[in-house]
Amino acid sequence: MINKLYKKLKTEEFDTLLITDRNAIDYLTGIDIDPGERMYILVIKDGQSKLFLSKLFNVDGNKYVDPIYFLDTDDYVGMLRDEIKDSKNIGVDKLMDARFLLPIMDGVKTFKVASHLIDDLRARKDAEEIKLMAEASRLNDLAMGRMEELLKEDYTEMEMRELLLKTYRDLGAEDFSFEPIIGYGKASWDPHHVTDNSRKKPGDAVVVDIGCIKDGYCSDMTRTFFYKEASEEAKKIYEIVRLANETAIKKVAPGVKLKDIDRAARQVIEDAGYGEYFTHRTGHFIGREVHEAGDVSENNENVCEIGNIFSIEPGIYVPDVCGVRIEDLVVVTEDGCEVLNKYPKDFKIIK
């Protein structure tokens, strides 16, 4: 991946990049280190990469970087300053700590945020990355099936969370890709509910928003079920959300503006009279992190590109009635898109 960045830099204004984002360094070099509070910076300059890191760690033999080791007692910021002293236009990523950045800013050099260079590369997945994302989604399908079965029992939301983690581990996934949302009843009205010790009761909507990490790549999917019974309005809301989800997916294709995909989902919900209850964007980009740069929102003028992977997750959240969200991941292909997760999204009542 780092060779792609070298090529991209030739057409950009920057002569040097300073990268501190751990996920970006892993993406570019295959090195994944948790440095804690210590300085950890990949410097890209003149077609070469040097990784500044503590001697507590060892990356000797990595073919992509030359390691520059330091002790905690060294003037490691001074070492970094010396490395970039001849640079004119320096790009820094959006996560660089001020305690490292400010000491090397002398008022002469030009510093600008340059995260978009790597974000753009990460947004276009290659064939191997798509394969890994598909596998993570396959495991997520299996986990969702297990969740549906467990909902027949009298487990609390938090107990469901723990059973989900065990399920992922049994399937060979590394961990959650995000803290799962399992919301019963009134919790379904809150798009970002924090899972608690509530128990479900007949008539409750049950939102299950889950994802895992497999081989460094994330999955994310939401399904909404109903426990024992459902009101007629709840059934109506569910079918509106499903139509919004499917309509937006059909809109996805190379060259289509991301805001137009959001509009496709939102229009279905607005036309049905529930526009005020769709309170978030339609989707987000995903890959090594569950939320990567890029989204499917009404303000995003960017267009779909082959290899983009993002969620389509419209929702309606009506207090005292129910909340419904249906989420799929799609990958943009030459002639449209492919949905990575395959779990059914028919209306279901858990008996």
Description:
- The protein starts with a helix and ends with a strand.
- The mean pLDDT is 96.
- Helix 8 runs antiparallel to helix 9 (258-271).
- With 351 residues, the protein is an alpha+beta fold.
- It is built from 9 helices and 20 strands.
- The strands form 6 sheets. It has a 6-stranded mixed β-sheet. Strands 8-9-12-20 form a 4-stranded mixed β-sheet, covered by helices on one side. The chain has a 3-stranded antiparallel β-sheet with strand order 7-10-11.
Task: Walk me through the topology.
Blueprint (H helix, E strand, L loop, with lengths): L1 H8 L6 E4 L2 H8 L11 E5 L2 E7 L11 E5 L5 H8 L5 E4 L5 H4 L8 E4 L1 H9 L3 H24 L6 H15 L3 E2 L4 E4 L20 E6 L1 E3 L2 E2 L2 E7 L4 H20 L6 H14 L11 E3 L6 E5 L12 E4 L2 E4 L3 E4 L2 E6 L2 E4 L9 E2 L1
What tags apply to this protein structure?
elongated, alpha+beta, single chain, 24% strand, 31% helix, 351 residues, four-stranded mixed sheet
